[in-house]
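Mods, move this if it's the wrong board.
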Amino acid sequence: AERFRPMKTSGIGTMAMRTTLPVRTLIVDDSQLMLQILTRILTKTNRYEIVGTATDGTQALRLAHTLHPGLILIDYRLPDLDGIQATKCIKTFEDPPVIVVITSDDNPGLRSMAGAAGADGFLLKGGDIQRRLTATLREFFDSGGARKRTNDSPS
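Not the wrong board. Structure tokens:
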């Protein structure tokens, strides 16, 4: 199966996978304000369709399984099951989505933990999150919403 290598941010090819516009998106954060901010950023264009939101890791697993999103933005610090544990579980699903871990915790070890769990991207909250989120997602989806793959991913 075609899969991204965790945290790969260079060498993106042009081969597309099955996702097309709008990208079905699940947002997971225990902060209602952050859910609103991320929803607002993603819905400014017609590129992303928010198919669900969750406020804890268990809800994230359930919704990822039933909604089949192409993209999940997930906070690291969640009640119940943290974002890294949830990512590890979701990446075992058949045809798993792109997962970007979003956190306010600027811990260098956290980035490597996210990568080891299978996260495709890692983003710090704060600052110009709109610009950084948009740039990060461009690495995974082309202008038509198709999912890109890295040149060195297994076929």
